[in-house]
Automatic annotation (TrEMBL):
<keyword id="KW-1133">Transmembrane helix</keyword>
<protein>
    <recommendedName>
        <fullName>ZP domain-containing protein</fullName>
    </recommendedName>
</protein>
<keyword id="KW-0812">Transmembrane</keyword>
<feature type="domain" description="ZP">
    <location>
        <begin position="1"/>
        <end position="119"/>
    </location>
</feature>
<dbReference type="InterPro" id="IPR052774">
    <property type="entry name" value="Celegans_DevNeuronal_Protein"/>
</dbReference>
<keyword id="KW-0472">Membrane</keyword>
<feature type="transmembrane region" description="Helical">
    <location>
        <begin position="188"/>
        <end position="213"/>
    </location>
</feature>
<dbReference type="GO" id="GO:0009653">
    <property type="term" value="P:anatomical structure morphogenesis"/>
</dbReference>
<dbReference type="InterPro" id="IPR001507">
    <property type="entry name" value="ZP_dom"/>
</dbReference>
Length: 242
């Protein structure tokens, strides 16, 4: 047994808002089929157990069809009834309890009057084809929120989401800052080493140029000295002065 939300995409729900169109569905698995089942004594009660309402009697007939209709067969093997979400003032929790009966062969539907036929449970039946084999209780619960409660929950979730987004942004900024600091700590020694290498290379280049120019100047001076020594006055003895 489960509660589905009726709409474009029918889906199982556990929390709805007041007035939503819902579907109570009972799915039957092999080896049984819906013709061998009867459902009756469906009771809705509040979460605290202080309030209750009979939705289907032992025959499967609704005392208040406007609140909850009869169970109908839906292929391939389901019993369904559509209703609008309601709740009790004492609690947003709405509990459903149902009694299922399995027949050996076929179970005949119950005539609820006013043209309504329910595939519910018959309390007493003399038909041999409806010999009772066993009864199984089914239960489930959903939460029915009022419009005001739903809006408050949505607003609260929005605030939590915004807070989480802000925390996530702050965390990302912190991580980025840590990463940048780590990168600086890693690259600073390398940068210092590169700077030292560049300064050393520049110093070597300057020293090399200075040494080259010094040698060039020294060579010019040496050449001048040699040239001066070659042109110093010398005593020449001529043959006719002998």
């Amino acid at each position: 047994m489960r509660i589905l939300e009726v709409g474009r995409n029918v889906k199982q729900v556990s929390e709805v808002k007041l007035g939503d169109e819902l579907e109570l569905r009972i799915d039957v698995n092999q080896p049984y089929n819906v013709s061998q089942l009867r459902a009756g004594h469906l009771v809705a009660s509040s979460g605290d157990g202080l309030d209750s309402l009979l939705l289907l009697d032992w025959r499967g007939c609704p005392p208040e069809p406007s609140t909850f209709p009869v169970l109908n067969l839906t292929p391939p093997n389901s019993m369904v009834a559509r209703f609008k979400a309601f709740r009790f003032p004492s609690s947003p929790v709405l509990r459903f309890s149902l009694m299922m009966m399995f027949c050996d062969q076929l179970c005949k539907p119950s005539d609820c009057g006013n043209g309504q036929v329910s595939y519910g449970r018959r309390k007493r039946d003399t038909q041999a084809s409806e010999t009772k084999t066993k009864e199984v209780p089914l239960q489930l619960a959903i939460v029915v929120r009022s419009l005001e409660e739903r809006e408050e929950i949505i607003a609260s979730q929005s605030q939590i989401s915004n807070s989480n987004n802000n925390n996530e942004r702050s965390s990302r900024r912190l991580e980025a800052s840590v990463i940048r600091n780590n990168e600086w700590c890693i690259t600073w020694p390398i940068g210092l080493a590169i700077t030292i290498i560049l300064v050393t290379m520049q110093t070597l280049i300057v020293l090399g140029c200075w040494s080259f120019f010094r040698r060039s100047n020294q060579k010019v001076l040496n050449d001048r000295v040699t040239l001066n020594s070659d042109f110093q006055p010398r005593h020449v003895t001529w043959a006719d002065h002998q």
